Amino acid sequence: MPLFPNPKKTALLLFIATLVALFHFLDLKRHLSLTALKANFEALQAFNAAQPIITATAYISAFIFLSSLALPGPLIMCLAAGAIFGVISGTVYSTIAATIGASLAFLATRYLFREKVQLRFGNRLTQVNKLLHNEAFTHLLLIRLIPVVPFTLVNIGAGLTKIPLRSFVLATLVGIIPSGLILCNAGANLAEVENVRDIFTIKIFGSFLLLGILPLMTILHRRLLSKKKDQF
Predict the structure, then answer these.
(1) Taking the model in full, what pTM does it have?
(2) What is the number of structural domains in the chain?
């Protein structure tokens, strides 16, 4: 019995699976490491100086490819953006690419699996769908600003719900800017970076928590107002 009766969905799933398989078969992950970035840093900078448009286009395309297929490498790509393009331009390029890639993953998940999930678990997800539909932007912004849940899991999980695409795109675009700035700033000082994990220190996570206070307070304020309305 086929996974999908719809041949278009089957074809899309096979296409995605083929791309992921090729990525791992060709061992492209070896190019997406801190060691590889440092080894090719001067060559990348020289190519960008000679062909800035081609470099930016290739970078954004590669980042979209990785993030849309949930492949490893986006974190290194953010470092590369700062190293090659500088903090500001690097943050702009990486944020745009990550948002587009996340949106594609969101749409693919929604197209392929949401109907099945909603049919099977619709009753259990009713409250979740209602909550996300009414306060989708605020909740997702909070999740993006405090990156405890992996970026890829948020894309897939959101695609399985009824969260509006517009809210997903806007919350993702705004929410990933702080982490993008931190990574691009680290990339701009690439020689000082010895371990990617060292970038996100306790102080940095504390800053993310502070950034998350505003959307959290907004959620709590709306809940409080809703309770007061129910009482009258």
Answers:
(1) 0.85
(2) 1
